[in-house]
Amino acid sequence: MIRLLLTVSRRFRPSSREIAAKPSQAFTSATCSTKCLAQVTEVEEDTTAQSTDPVQVFRKWGCNYDDLDRIFKRNPQLHKADVTLLQSNLSVLSRLGLEAPDLVRIINCRPRFLLSSRVHRHFDERFPYLDSLFESKELLKRAVVTNPSLLFYDFNKIIKPALAQYEELGVDKEDFLALICTRPTIIIRTSFDEEKLEYIRKTGLSQDSKLYKYAVAIIGVSRVETIREKLSNLANFGFSDDEIFYLIGRSPLVLTLSIEKVQRNMTFILTTMKFDAKTVLEIPRLLLINLDTLMKPRVLLMRKLQDMDGELEFTPSSIIRAVRMKEHRFVQLFIESQPGQIADELMEFYKKAKEFKRLAGLRKKFVQKGFPF
Question: pTM for this one?
């Protein structure tokens, strides 16, 4: 009986090889399953991050943290942007050769640009035309950064008719493309009627003049009512009709100035500088110069120098030269050239004259009337 029990127990006893094998197999199986689970989890998390996080999309496209900070400050809604839409629009910019700094400028100008589905829609049809129109990839990049809406415009209904209008007036294609880079609204806002064409003729500029294209573009994008108001404002200072258009021919940018700016500059020129109104006909820049941060502080400083030295006298030509100087040159010539204590006093006076603009600017109310011209 005892022999039978021993025999049976030996039959069911596992061998040492089996005992060694079983724990090893169990351990290996558990280790493999743990590794695979970890890998799958990591891949799923990475895929999820790439597909749902706009930050990762921007980073992958080439934006650094400074770029992202500026982009999200300009439009916080991009934090929640649809990633698929975002990737499609960024791929369009990549095809144009644009990079992160260009994107920052675009978002600063058009905060909702990347949220529009129109960016990539029909881009394959528009791109060949834009490429052939600009002929230079660099010029196309400049134009898109200046006016991203170029990617939306219908070239048959909008771009081609605008180009045809300028070519009819003697502005060739090369000049037209250069204007697009400096005047973003030239395509969508240009219109000409008989009154505007008469204004262009009155400037006396020939089509060969370098200023002609600017005069045409500024008058073309401006409202007729606005032009009339600005002409009337200049007439209030005693300018005849011929003198006004002579001034515009000398500097077409005069038409881009607000009525308030022209009034303030002209008042200062007449009352403080004691110049004749006709001076601006020969030096139009007097109307363009910033009154509060440049012209007024410099003229007041020169007046103070005259008060400190009764024999010192500044002629109109010397005042104009001083106003047109570079900042470091003006400071060196009129302030740093004086003895120590006097130079300190003049520098403090000059700084206070400039700071007055900042205080006034905080109280100024801006009324937005839409397009400025």
Answer: 0.75
